[in-house]
Amino acid sequence: MMHWLRHGTGGVMMNEMISTLVFYVLAMVILGTALGVVMSRNLVHSALLMTACFIGVGMLFFYLDADFLGAMEFMLYSGGVAILVVMGVMLTKRHDGPPGNPFNNNTLLALGGAGLFVIIMIGVVISTTTPAGGYVSPDTVNELADMMLNKYILPFEIAATLLLAALVGAIILAKGDGEA
Amino acid sequence: MSIGLGHCLLLAAMLFSIGLYGALAKRNIIAVLMGIELMLNAVNINFVAFNRFTPVSDLTGQLMTVFAITVGVAEVAIGVALAYRIYNDRLTINVDELDNMKG
Amino acid sequence: MFYDFALEHAWLIPLLPAMAFVIIGMITRSYGKLSAGIAVCMSFISFLLSSGVTYALVNYGISVEQPFVQQLNWMHIGSVSISMGVLIDPLTAMMLMVVSTVSLLVQIYSVGYMKGDKGYGRFFAFLSLFAASMLGLVLAVNFLQMYVFWELVGLCSYLLIGFYYYKVSAREAAKKAFMTTRVGDFGLLLGILLLQINFGTLDFMELREIIPAYISVAGTGMMTVIALLVFVGPIGKSGQFPLHVWLPDAMEGPTPVSALIHAATMVVAGVYLVGRAFFMFTELPCVMNVIAWVGGFTAFFAASIAFTQTAIKRILAYSTISQLGYMMLALGVGSLTASFFHLMTHAFFKALLFLCAGAVMHAMADEANIFKMGGLRKKMPITFATMTIGVLAIAGIPPFAGFFSKDEILLAAAQVSTPLYVLATLTAFMTAFYMARLLFVTFCADPADQESYDHAHEPSKFMLFPLIVLAALAVVSGLWGHLEGFGEWVRFGHPHEAGIDMTIAVSSTILSFIAFGIAWNIYVAKRWSSDTIAEKTGILYKLSYNKFYIDEIYEALIKVFVDGVAKVFYWIDIYIVDGIVNGLAHLVGGISWILSKAQNGQAQHYSGVFICGVVILVAYSLYYLAVLGGAL
Hints:
The structure holds three protein chains of three kinds. Chain A is mostly helical. Chain A has helices at residues 2-6, 12-39, 43-63, 67-91, 107-126, 140-150, 153-175. In chain A, helix 2 (12-39) packs antiparallel against helix 3 (43-63) and helix 3 (43-63) runs antiparallel to helix 4. Chain C has 27 helices and two strands. The longest helix of chain C is centred in the last third of the chain and has 47 residues, at 550-596. By secondary structure, chain C is mainly alpha-helical. Classes of the chains: A mainly alpha, B mainly alpha, C mainly alpha. Chains in contact: A-B, A-C, B-C. At the A-B interface, helix 2, helix 3, helix 4, helix 5 and helix 6 of A face helix 1, helix 2 and helix 3 of B.
């Protein structure tokens, strides 16, 4: 999308500024909703905020010229996983009031681990010089299909088998063995 | 300043650590699952960013992301089924009480 | 010639009885007569070979300075080489003759004495083993070989004392004998080890040269210690005070055993050792003094106990201890000749006395108390005659054997130390008294129990034959030894002249007759009552009758010392050792309990720890790579 923006109206500088702005907005959305998922006290709110986060990530994919992926993200994550999670919330709800989302005794350890991780990553990223250049594909669908069915046929088949296994497994888990 | 690899990577790192915190510090199984999903998404962002900003010749990064999404979806399905089972058996979804590995 | 063959193959002498032991022990144990036949046969061949060796010795003039030695190297351990072999000199030859003769006669006696016993075959096996061990000891060529056979005879003694293993008293006596001699053996072993360390060799011939040279250079300090340690062995084995306590109890064994082992042969192993190692002892006047006084005191002490004992074999046992004391005394005053002469004569008449005692006990249905016997001289005339000869011999009446040997000892003692001479003479007086008492009460006094008196009979011819032979030897051996120059062969250093000092000889004979007279008056003529004498002497009688309470003292000492030490160690074991072990276990348990707190079973906790660990590792490696510019 960026190159469309670039080759559209306006000057290069203006397009750059807009694209930077778009990125930052997307970033804030993603991070904000993610924080909301973790901090919210209502589990249903968390689920819905997670959906919003996925939408944000999908749009980020569009921004990064991965259009097929963005579509996939929308369809599968915000339209699939999020629904699954909401269904999980509903299925495991206790019958008194809205489901809560409390913290456990581990918060300090978790904060320590996550915080350390972020700090180290920031340090690494800042101190690395990124190579110039990039790759934008004009036709991601065709190219992805080409790769998937030629070079990466094996992972493709394995992924298909994995999905089948997950499907059967989930059914058995949910129904209980002996009854399936 | 144009957006480069570093920005995306930083964004992914922060999303990852938020997801990590959620996965480790929450009492509800579903909340833990949500944290894990956030982490998976952060990783996907990483792949796509690398594919976009480094001089490669094909879309390997995006293909990886396709597969990663697939696997993540399968994992969520299993996770929810598991949570449902645990709820059935123990009438609780409090992770703190799943401590059979104690000692 | 036969005697050449015997000399060259002297190692056969102990080997043949050993083979008899193996054959009887493994194959023919249940066939009584066959076992006895094998044992006696091998004994007889050994006797012939010993005679051959003695003849060869006289023929070739092998002397104490130039013995006949045959040895071969048994094994090397590092720089120490151990050899076994045969050493033949007049001492050895004399011992060979004594041991093989008495052994043969005792085995013939046992054919009759042990008849009907269900351990018949076992008895002959053990007797043969003993004969083999004693002969091997006598032929020993170095200290180590002697120690090996020393232990073997101790083992045989244990086996034979405890022959009637179903009797508790026999088992206890066997244990007591073994343990008491063990104390002695320990000292001997220490002495041998010190010898090996200091001189690098244990060979008698080599040490004979080395030790005097060593003493003239380095003085007597270390050698005194070694010699005293070596002497502890004979104290145990030859029943000197204070390790004499096992000999009286050893009478639990069958009478042939007492005759062979505890009178004639095994107990003289100690005397033989001192004689063999005399080159070491004569250089050390302090040790010689110790030996002489130990011997003298033992002689007197044992005689004083024998005064009041009532069991026939016990009287003879204490008499043996007393005579062994005489032999040690003779060695202590420097006369090897006198000591070994007395050894020879004592072997004959003491074995005779024991075998007669066995015949008497057999006739009186194993009754041992002499005061329950009496008047047996009419019923057992031959036994009475041989016993009388034995008593006369031990009392030192001429021309019987004991007179010459005892006279030589008294002479040697008088030449060196008057107190010892007085002690020895006093002991001779006491010996005559209690032996006469034994003879008179058993044979001459009126019978105590009419019924058992009626059953008494002369023993069988197997038992009579050895008695007669030994009686003949008891008469003849003294005179023969005196006339044929025993002192020229068996000696150390220069032979001293074998004269008879008239004052000593006459005075000792008169004293013996006086003792006989007193005994006659008390026990036969009943002019003085023995009970009043016992009352009048009061405490002395009590002490003597109870063996001076030595056994009780030892038992108390052992109880206090051993039990006390055991209690201390038990406490240490329970509280300290177990405490340490249990404490360690508790410590480990405690640490693991603390550490197990980290495992609370929650997966999130585990993954949190895991993430922290990974992050720290990453940080560390980055730090090293980036800042320090190198790998870990």
